[in-house]
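Service request form, structural biology core

Requester: graduate student, group of Dr. S.
Request type: structure prediction, single chain
Budget code: on file
Notes: please return the result as structure tokens.

Sequence provided:
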Amino acid sequence: MIRIERMNEAHVLQVAELEKCCFSDPWSEQSIAYELRGPFSLWLVALDGETVAGYVGSQSVQGESDMMNIAVHPDYRRQGIGEKLVTELAAQLKALGNACLTLEVRVSNANAIALYEKLAFRQIGRRPNYYRNPKEDALILQKEL
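Core staff response, request fulfilled:
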């Protein structure tokens, strides 16, 4: 059974490996560890036993939050883990007094866009050439908490 909990230092190596598995421009282990220690950061992991099946991370400033990264291991996809991670992140951010959650998503990532729309995110903008490897625009989506 998958459980969602706050990420801690013990999860950093697995999260860094998941970054390499899922992204063409992955965050380093050092960047993840640094972000995890940040006073404005909230990172969650989806655990299957001690295995990190997925994670999500955010930063918050003055009542507004930005979802930095989210990934689910390919072996765990299509099981609702991404939805659980985003839903729990939003709930915890709201409990901390944040008013909204914003994210960027590749315009070609139809599966992620469909998930975010299901979770009541709406498009508020577009960032040309935001991503690299390959170069691609990002949609800016936001959800009121």
